[in-house]
Design brief:
Elements lengths: L2 E4 L3 H27 L4 H18 L10 E4 L4 E2 L17 E5 L3 E8 L12 H20 L4 E9 L6 E13 L2 E10 L2 E11 L7 H17 L1
The chain binds decanoyl-CoA.
Pfam families: 4HBT
EC number: 3.1.2.2
Family: Belongs to the THEM4/THEM5 thioesterase family.
Length: 225
């Protein structure tokens, strides 16, 4: 796994996010506008030229490969390229997940045209991705280290309409490195999707001890500096 410890303070992260999140929201706006625009072909071609120019501008300085996952010395994970929650990823739905120390996670989200499957309804794969992420975060916050999805079971009770949704996930029990979680996606009329998962805290992740060692090395560098 692409894992890196970065030396950023909470203030520096907040500063970076204050620039990145509005940019990502603009990209989401672009995606939605492209799907729903009814301008003529000349306007579409002109827009494409402008978009291509912006892409070329951003490509003048690029990270090789994907964004990866960066951890700060406070052990906060920065997964800004993540498909479900990446702060730099315009295809990630605008989820703002709230962690609860007792192993729960909750989220309100509004899904627009970019997340459609059947007409007017959320794509089943998108629902699975959203609840997978929330279940993983519930397990991880309860566990204190990130968990991977081992087994995910999704039940589609009724169609999920595009628009405002609320989601919740909770830790049910833990057996060794396995964390059993369940969750749901709801409209104002109740659940549309329920899910259960076995999340596994992988043995190949850097252990808390390894992370603490890296953190101590960074602190020692500070002392020398
Ligand atoms: C704040 C951070 C928030 C992070 C949230 C993340 C949310 C997103 C989650 C994802 O989408 S992760 C991406 C999708 N998942 C994967 O790509 C996982 C691919 N599979 C693996 O990497 C490994 O197979 C896995 C980490 C799941 C397990 O490998 P390990 O080598 O660590 O486990 P091991 O084989 O030693 O088994 C440990 C226990 O887990 C059980 N286990 C292993 N694989 C399992 C599985 N697939 N399903 C259920 N249980 C599983 C296994 O039976 C055993 O149970 P027991 O202790 O009772 O014997």
């Amino acid at each position: 796994m692409n894992f890196r410890l970065v030396d950023l303070s909470a203030e520096e992260i907040a500063q970076q996010l204050s620039v990145v999140e509005p940019l990502t929201d603009s990209v989401r706006g672009l995606i939605d506008a492209v799907i729903r625009t009814e301008v003529d072909d000349d306007e579409l071609n002109a827009a494409r030229e402008q978009i291509d120019a912006i892409v070329a501008r951003l490509r003048t300085k690029q990270k090789p490969g994907s964004f990866g996952v960066q951890f700060t010395r406070e052990l906060s994970g920065l997964s800004w390229g993540n498909a479900a929650v990446g702060a730099r990823n315009g295809i990630a739905p605008p989820m703002r997940i709230v962690h609860h120390e007792d192993g729960r996670a909750t989220c309100d989200v509004e899904l627009g045209a970019a997340y459609e499957g059947p007409g007017g309804l959320v794509h089943g794969g998108v629902s699975a991705m959203l609840i997978d992420q929330l279940l993983g975060e519930a397990a991880s916050v309860g566990n204190g280290l990130p968990c991977f999805t081992g087994t995910l079971t999704v039940k589609y009770l009724r169609p999920t309409p595009l628009g405002p949704l609320s989601m919740s996930a909770e830790t049910v029990r833990r057996e060794g490195r396995k964390i059993f979680v369940r969750g749901e996606i709801c409209t104002a009329d109740g659940p549309t999707v329920t899910a259960e998962a076995i999340m596994v805290s992988p043995k190949e992740l850097p252990s808390r001890d390894q992370i603490m060692k890296l953190r101590a090395e960074l602190a020692a560098q500070d002392g020398q500096g």
